[in-house]
Design goal:
It is a single chain. The protein is of the alpha/beta class. It contains 17 helices and 38 strands. It has four domains: about 130 residues, no CATH class; about 210 residues, no CATH class; about 240 residues, 3-Layer(aba) Sandwich (Rossmann fold), CATH 3.40.50; about 90 residues, no CATH class. The longest helix has 19 residues.
Length: about 725
């Protein structure tokens, strides 16, 4: 499935659609243009479709990273920043546009560039033929490996994960040069497709042949293109004779995590010596504290790089280490192996967790449930005078048994996830069915959202979220709001295609409460909804059934929720998903900044997003002040910008915030806190007033359009 180029219907320019990922991008031109086919082989970088137009200029409607390159070999010339202008003499140029649809513009002309925070304009030396090339950001498994329940088969499967890498150089730290590992399914015996070739990096991970060790090293094996073989003493070896023990005093798991994070960080620094030279915060932080020659390391064999990287003590790099997007806790059993390709595709860290330490006591479970019981419950089964149900009754009320809940430890990663039996108390539970659903059919690029409210007492949330969804000028939405639907109407709606289905109402162990009865999601043959938000009491089991029926992810509650808190949760989720957060990162924010957010989990695939973010990757702004009311235009404010990874901008992407001074680095590695910038309130207001973005002030989550109601938040 290839991207599509179309003329703009309501303006002059070109629309680029990625039908697989439902992404849309536009280029504006000063005159009408006609599109003709062009040669995809003429581009220095891979593109799947190319078109030619004639124009005197192109304008990017909002600022995204743009690199100006030599058209002949792709070598870097300069970056177009957020604020600045420059002129280049007549030559052959390739403009690399890091938009939601990867785009290249090939032009032979002089070049005048004007970049602001709102747009980037490229003006040519008169009407000029230019070539546009695009490729989809879609990644999926290219092959399927069958394994038996012998852990050595799992080792052989994990040894093939590196076949997805598009390079084994340090540039694999760029997410678009890491492909999706092959799928793994269980069967009677090991079967690896003949055309699936491991990269042959010479790196080997020697670990005991059990699931605890195999699951833990899977992300490291993928990133290094390493073989995984049985060995009593856990260690990493390279073809040049380098050996690194993994059974250190800090423990096997911690050492594997340390190696992956440290190699990744130093790859991100070393890659700045190559075709993407950048002034990055990570290089500025690392260079003063290490004795490494990154120019020499660039292009060096992997074994030499690893020896140099791992010679640096962990403590030396502690302050420079980037945040990690996700840590996934995995039950070390044969069933978990099928989900490993999807775990490592996100470059998640893996920690194993056994059943013995999984379940909270029934008393602890009941204590958490009681915290959620207050005024008006979103469940027809409970009222203020009833105690919690017994363990035998709990399964019938729509949630797992007490013994099936898994407490996940606090982490410094941006998200937490779980693979295995049971449901995490916080974070996301990965379900294999979520990754089996085929979402490769073409779409029209419009985000379809349906909101259903089946209780008049909850109309406040329905009114609020129906206004939130679709407040984006650049992203076309189709929002359908329904109230008080019947069981047949709800069944029909759930069977239709939606990017997001948001339900507000009552759910119990029997299913969704409708005006004429109960609809059990387990009775649905399929659903066309990609993401589902069930803002009701005890919606866990109904959400799981919907994922099994075809959804990619469901946001559900594992207990009772009061109506006032649920309204806050529903509105916050709506804003975050509309802005461009993935469901997993949205959940983490909801848990931290809403009163009852810790009573919700994600089941399915936590990486799913419903809309692309206009900032590239989602940003959260944390202001060091208690209130905005007393600030004057000249008063300075400290602003920490936190970036979040998405499937479009995964870990290893580069973010370029708007708030740098001339002394700040230009780029930061995604995700995590980018920097704390100090700006006057007037400067900050000018940067934030043009769109609706999440801001933390005094430990409260607010939105910029709440500060500047006169601003057009749809821009």
């Amino acid at each position: 499935m290839r991207p599509r180029f179309d003329p703009l219907g309501d303006s002059t320019g070109v629309e680029i659609l990625d039908p697989i990922e439902s992404n849309r991008y536009v280029l504006y031109t000063p005159e009408e243009v006609s599109l003709t086919p062009a040669d995809t082989e003429a581009f220095a970088y891979p593109v799947s479709v190319a078109r030619r137009i004639t124009t005197s200029a192109v304008t990017l409607p909002y600022n995204v990273p743009v690199a100006v390159r030599d058209a002949s070999d792709g070598s870097h010339i300069l970056d177009a920043g957020h604020d600045g202008s420059f002129d280049l003499a007549d030559d052959d140029y390739l403009l690399e546009v890091s938009a939601p649809v990867k785009l290249y513009v090939r032009v032979s002309s002089s070049l005048s560039v004007e970049a602001t925070t709102e747009a980037v304009e490229f003006e040519f030396g008169g009407p000029t033929p230019i070539e546009l090339g695009a490729r989809s950001s879609h990644n999926s498994p290219a092959a399927t490996i069958t394994v038996s329940d012998d852990p050595e088969d799992a080792m052989a499967a994990v040894s093939t994960f590196g076949s997805a890498l598009k390079t084994t150089a340090c540039e694999r730290s760029w997410p678009n040069l890491r492909g999706h590992p092959p799928r793994v399914e269980r069967g009677d015996e090991l079967a690896i497709p003949d055309d699936l070739d491991a990269p042959g990096t010479g790196v080997t991970l020697h670990v005991p042949a059990d699931y605890e060790h195999v699951c833990t090293v899977a992300p490291l094996a993928y990133y290094l293109g390493a073989d995984v073989v049985p060995g009593e003493t856990p260690r990493l070896t390279a073809g040049n004779g380098f050996v690194h023990r993994l059974d250190t005093e800090r423990g096997f798991e911690d050492e594997v995590v340390r190696v992956l994070r440290q190699v990744f960080l130093l790859d991100c620094v070393t890659r700045t010596e190559g075709i993407h030279p950048m002034d990055t915060a990570e290089r500025r932080a690392v260079e003063p504290v290490v004795d490494l020659d990154f120019a020499d390391l660039y292009g060096a064999p992997l074994g030499e790089q690893l020896a140099a990287y791992l010679s640096v003590p962990r403590s030396v790099l502690a302050d420079a280490m980037p945040s990690w997007s996700r840590v996934t806790h995995v039950r070390p059993v044969a069933e978990s192996v099928e989900l490993l390709p999807f775990v490592v595709n996100d470059l998640s860290l893996v920690r194993v967790k056994s059943g013995a330490e999984s379940s909270p006591s029934p008393d602890a479970r009941r204590a958490r449930e009681r915290e959620a019981l207050s005024s008006f419950k979103r469940s027809p089964r409970f009222d203020e005078g009833l105690d919690l149900p017994t363990d035998a009754e709990e399964r019938a009320t729509g949630v797992p048994d007490s013994s099936e809940y898994v407490p996940l430890p606090e982490t410094d990663a941006m998200e937490r996830a779980w693979v295995g039996d049971g449901t995490p108390v916080h974070g996301a539970k990965l379900l294999a069915e979520a990754f089996d659903h085929d979402r490769s059919e073409p779409t029209d690029g419009v985000i379809d959202v349906t909101v259903v409210c089946n209780d008049d007492g909850m109309r406040e949330e329905w009114d609020t979220v129906s206004q939130v969804y679709g407040t984006r000028e650049m992203i076309p939405f189709d929002v359908d709001c329904r109230f008080d639907v019947s069981t047949d109407e709800l069944r029909t709606l759930l069977a239709e295609d939606h990017d997001l289905f948001h339900f507000i109402g009552h759910i119990d162990g029997r299913g969704f409460a409708c005006r004429d009865g109960i609809l059990d999601a387990a009775t649905l043959a399929e659903t066309g909804a990609t993401t589902i938000l069930l803002n009701a009491c005890r919606s866990h089991d109904q959400g799981v059934s919907l994922v099994e029926a075809g959804a990619r992810a469901a946001i559900v509650s594992w207990g009772d929720v009061d109506n006032l808190g649920a309204v806050e949760v529903g509105e916050t989720f709506a804003r975050l998903l509309n802005y461009g957060f993935g469901v997993g990162s949205a959940l983490e924010i909801v848990e931290e900044f809403t009163a009852i957010g810790r009573h919700y989990v994600v089941v399915g695939d936590p990486s799913v997003t419903i809309a692309q973010c206009e900032n590239g990757n989602p940003l959260l702004f944390e202001l060091d002040c208690d209130s905005m009311a007393a600030l004057t235009s000249e008063e300075t404010v400290s602003n920490t910008v936190v970036s979040y990874a998405t499937t479009k901008f995964p870990i290893g992407s580069a973010a370029q915030p708007h708030f740098q001074s001339d002394d700040d680095p230009d780029f930061y590695v995604v995700p995590g806190p980018l920097e704390t910038f100090t700006n006057s309130w007037a400067e900050l207001e000018a940067s934030l007033r043009d769109y609706s973005a999440p801001v933390v002030v005094g430990e409260e989550l607010l939105w910029t359009d709440e500060w500047f109601p006169e601003a057009d938040a749809s821009e």
